[in-house]
Amino acid sequence: MLNTRYPMRFVYMLLLPSLLLADYWQQKVNYDIDVELIDSVHQVSGHETITYINNSPDSLNYIWMHLWPNAYKNTETMLAQQKFNQFSTKIHFLPDSSFGWIDIEKVTADSQHIDWHFRSADTLDVAKFMLNQPLLSGDTLFMDLDFVVQVPASISRLAHMGHHYQMTQWYPKPAVYDSLGWHPMSYLDMGEFYSEWGNYEVS
């Protein structure tokens, strides 16, 4: 008599990846950014439209937002603390003019003003943007932001050295929301940037 246990196990092994991925979902975030570099003062001024597509099974009442240039704002940020723990005191002796930041001048969600606040006093590079109405599963949200970035002196990835610019992680971007929830992590020198996939149109 033919023993079919092993062939069936083989079939299960083939099907397992598909079964595990059956409930997989991933948010999608598209960006339309119009930006200008004002090199006389080492600033970037921009307008950003974020199209946030909620592919999760959950309703979202807020969006955690990365404002990563604020990692360069002062000597109390997570980036500054990490640098200090690595025995690097460069950031602690910078003149005020060499620090960097991002200022959100205006933000709306579906053309309505929304409130927002920083995560904490020492986590100014992460903010919670409160939505006026829940973003339901399968729905799309349009966020418009006006912002200004002060490009810092050379400390980490985002920097200027004279009029040479390294522009990385300079624009407001939503944190990842996945099956484990939100990932509102701070900007660090040693670390990677977990971000949502999406399309970019940048002028």
Characteristic key phrases:
203 residues; mainly beta; six-stranded mixed β-sheet; four-stranded antiparallel β-sheet; 2 helices; globular
Task: Explain this structure.
It contains two helices and 14 strands. A hairpin with a 4-residue loop joins strand 1 (28-38) and strand 2. It has 203 residues and is mainly beta.
Layout: helices, strands, pairs:
Elements: H1 5-21, E1 28-38, E2 43-53, E3 60-66, H2 78-85, E4 101-109, E5 112-113, E6 116-120, E7 123-135, E8 140-150, E9 159-161, E10 164-166, E11 173-174, E12 176-178, E13 181-183, E14 200-202
Parallel strand pairs: 1-14
Antiparallel strand pairs: 1-2, 2-8, 3-7, 3-11, 4-5, 4-8, 6-7, 9-10, 12-13
Our Rg estimate from Cα atoms comes to 21 Å
Following the backbone from N to C, one meets helices and strands in this order, namely HEEEHEEEEEEEEEEE
Number of strands: 14
The N- and C-terminal alpha carbons lie at a distance of 70 Å
The count of helical stretches stands at: 2
- Which stretches are low in confidence, meaning pLDDT under 50 for 5 or more residues running? none
Mean pLDDT over all positions: 88
Structural class: mainly beta
Largest sheet properties: 6 strands, mixed
Q: How much β-strand is present in the residues? A: 35-45%
Strand order of the largest sheet: 5-4-8-2-1-14
